[in-house]
């Protein structure tokens, strides 16, 4: 797995793990491109195309649960009912959300243009968009961008990295990962997302690819299991986007039918790797915080408690200030919608027990929070349920970025 | 009603409304005091005493729903089962939360000392605390403070204002209000609270007093109805405290039995006034935001939608930046746990329609957000349910105050 550094990096070279190139084109049967179509006024890359050259085109997707869904989400949910995708067109520079019938027409036309170029049907092309909500995408610019991207399609890590770069918004680094099975198949993937990240994903778009041989229902089961414990466990600011999309495309090019459990584990590994990269590159991040809850009545309750702590603005600002303010953590545990016995509550921060049995254990000033990684461990003493949420601190830079950037 | 200014004020003189003094001692039959007991290392006032001299001592209370409850909350909930209170001791400088049996003993001893001085039982004395969670209160300092406050007890607005000043933490101004009935009775009150403010109240302590003649069940009904549409509709940062307490004490000194509806309305007015003062003095506030939702299926769903928008960090940072970013509002509406039809969604900010029928209506740059007050109006077009939440923006000052202040 590729492990990113904490600080903002701007290196867009393909990450390399043990000599392998790591990207959405890692698996056999995939080509990609990332181009500057002119949607972003900055002139930065803003349109990506990922193509599955087969021999199979099985696919699965997971989408935002937001009731206000962007046009590309409505389009892609619809076309994915067939369980097959030949290609995905992704753009940054505009979310195409709250854009009405006109916005849906642009998504449809984008799929049609890609389909014409690839010689397939529009219903085999998914669309993903990210950027400002409420503005119409410039239709002709997008369609010309699809043609430009089609002309730039290539196999290999450079093409995958170009695609990953073209979907960035406030991301400072392209995010890619992969996993390799000794059985001869791979899973690769890319993602974007730096803010508006919360349960059931984020303003995040992610495309995963594999050359394993699987049917759509098998892909769907693996993807849902993976997302549940990876992207769904990342919560930067509690906000859920109108555009969240994770797609998994399978080319079958390896000819190998994988062990289902091994395949699910590999997809989960890639999703977790990408989630960690999003955490490390989140808007305004200065601390990467893991909230780990054990001893809950159930796994779901553990996640509820972890998410409540991870979202608490007072906890997040205290950790930004390197203050091991466990009282705020205890308060957040107490108002979560989960069973809590205050007399059994233990809170440990970076290995130092601060609260034992619901009472101060001392040591608050001895906790070293000078580093970028913070582990908040909450033990409820009620059962065997455990779970964790990845989050970030609430910093001046978060406020700055989100009060200035009209996303 | 006393209407506070937007900016932080440090005027602790009693507010005067139409020549009346407005305080927790406005109603007949009450004395109060606020003293510097030495709990706060700053030497600022930190202990308040409110005494009901009768002839009646009926009382009601509403407490935090946090499962981690401070010792004074556990004590006060217990003594209030009798429906009578002779006095309330309040301290700032320490929450006495997560302090175990030792903390409960301090609360108990505080009530006993006040009871000895007043010639009543300890079960007639409620205790309220606010400040850092997890530290033991200095028992002897608190008990000496109770004696000092007892010696300073007085009727009149100056005494009430001294009490209101002694419960301040990060508050910059003492918060008081009252209401007067032509029938001859009054309701007065004070509150504190500037952060950790959320549903089912906040790190807020509030004592309300009346000289109307009511029984405890009548007080309880009026108080719960009032809190539901006032303090419970203030949500600064989504965090719920371990210490929230609102008490209502009735002396019956006016000899007037009020009309129940008029009394409930008066208590509601006072609570709303105090809630607005807390909003105006919230930590780091630069904008006072009202999120008003209409057209929901039910009132509860309207409040759910309003609260989700009010808590969204991206909405709050955008409004801090005077950016009418309605797309973020639409996204928050969409992920709320309420029925939403995206095609019927209207969003209006400070009177300018920005989204109509789920689609951009233009005008985003024409919204004047330069003032301190912002009204976000969301119309769902589904039913008759409506409700509003008061909140504030998420500013640099909020981050600064909460990363530096170990509350």
UniProtKB/TrEMBL annotation, chains A, B:
**What are the BP-aspect GO terms?**
L-arginine biosynthetic process; ornithine biosynthetic process
Does the keyword field hold Amino-acid biosynthesis? Answer: yes
Q: Where in the cell is it found?
A: Cytoplasm
* EC numbers for this chain: 2.3.1.35, 2.3.1.1
Report one GO cellular component: cytoplasm
Q: Where is the composition biased (Basic and acidic residues)?
A: 1-15
| Region (Disordered), start-end ranges | 1-20
Positions binding substrate in this chain are 169, 192, 203, 283, 402, 407
Q: Which domain of life is it from?
A: Bacteria
Reactions it catalyzes: N(2)-acetyl-L-ornithine + L-glutamate = N-acetyl-L-glutamate + L-ornithine; L-glutamate + acetyl-CoA = N-acetyl-L-glutamate + CoA + H(+)
The GO terms this record gives for MF are: L-glutamate N-acetyltransferase activity; L-glutamate N-acetyltransferase activity, acting on acetyl-L-ornithine as donor
Sites marked Involved in the stabilization of negative charge on the oxyanion by the formation of the oxyanion hole:
130-131
Give the active-site positions: 203 (nucleophile)
Key words, A-Z = Acyltransferase, Amino-acid biosynthesis, Arginine biosynthesis, Autocatalytic cleavage, Cytoplasm, Multifunctional enzyme, Transferase
Q: Where is this site: Cleavage?
A: 202-203
What the entry lists under Pfam families is as follows: ArgJ (PF01960)
> What is the similarity comment for this entry?
Belongs to the ArgJ family.
Q: Which NCBIfam families match?
A: ArgJ, PRK05388.1
HAMAP family assigned to the protein according to its UniProt record, in alphabetical order: ArgJ
Q: How does it assemble?
A: Heterotetramer of two alpha and two beta chains.
Q: Which protein are we looking at? A: Arginine biosynthesis bifunctional protein ArgJ
Q: Which organism is it from?
A: Pseudonocardia broussonetiae
Its lineage reads: Bacteria, Bacillati, Actinomycetota, Actinomycetes, Pseudonocardiales
> What gene name does this entry carry?
argJ
């Amino acid at each position: 797995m590729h492990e990113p550094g904490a600080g903002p990096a701007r290196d867009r070279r393909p990450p390399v793990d043990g000599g392998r190139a790591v990207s959405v084109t890692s698996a056999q049967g995939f080509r990609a491109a990332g181009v500057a179509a002119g949607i972003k006024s900055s002139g930065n890359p803003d349109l990506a195309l990922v193509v599955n050259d087969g021999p199979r085109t099985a696919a699965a997707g997971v989408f935002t649960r937001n009731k206000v869904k962007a046009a590309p989400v409505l389009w892609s949910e619809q076309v994915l009912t067939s369980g097959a995708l030949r290609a995905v067109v992704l753009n940054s520079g505009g979310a195409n959300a709250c854009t009405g019938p006109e916005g849906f027409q642009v998504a449809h036309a984008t799929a049609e243009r890609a389909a014409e170029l690839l010689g397939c049907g529009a219903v085999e092309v998914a669309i993903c968009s990210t950027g400002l909500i409420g503005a119409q995408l410039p239709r002709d610019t997008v369609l010309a961008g699809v043609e430009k991207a089609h002309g730039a399609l290539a196999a290999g890590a450079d093409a995958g990295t170009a695609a990953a770069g073209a979907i960035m918004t406030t991301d400072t680094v392209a995010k890619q990962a992969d996993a390799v099975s000794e059985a001869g198949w791979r899973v690769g993937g890319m993602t974007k997302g730096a803010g508006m990240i919360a349960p059931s994903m984020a303003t995040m778009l992610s495309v995963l690819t594999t050359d394993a041989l699987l049917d759509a229902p098998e892909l769907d089961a693996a993807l849902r299991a993976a997302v549940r414990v990876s992207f769904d466990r990342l919560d930067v600011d509690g906000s859920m986007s109108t555009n969240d999309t994770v797609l998994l495309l399978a080319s079958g090019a390896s000819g190998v039918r994988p062990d289902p459990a091994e395949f699910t584990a590999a997809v989960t590994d890639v999703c977790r790797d990408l989630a960690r990269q999003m955490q490390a590159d989140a808007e305004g991040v200065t601390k990467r915080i893991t909230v780990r809850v054990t001893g809950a009545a159930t796994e779901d309750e553990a996640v509820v408690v972890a998410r409540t702590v991870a979202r608490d603005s007072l906890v997040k600002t205290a950790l930004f200030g390197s203050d091991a303010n466990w009282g705020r953590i205890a308060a957040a545990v107490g108002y979560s919608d989960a069973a809590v016995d205050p007399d059994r509550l233990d809170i440990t921060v970076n290995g130092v027990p601060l609260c034992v049995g619901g009472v101060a254990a001392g040591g608050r000033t001895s906790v070293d929070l000078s580093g970028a990684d913070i582990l908040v461990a909450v033990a409820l003493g009620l059962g065997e349920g455990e779970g964790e949420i990845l989050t970030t601190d609430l910093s001046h830079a978060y406020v700055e970025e989100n009060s200035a950037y009209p996303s």
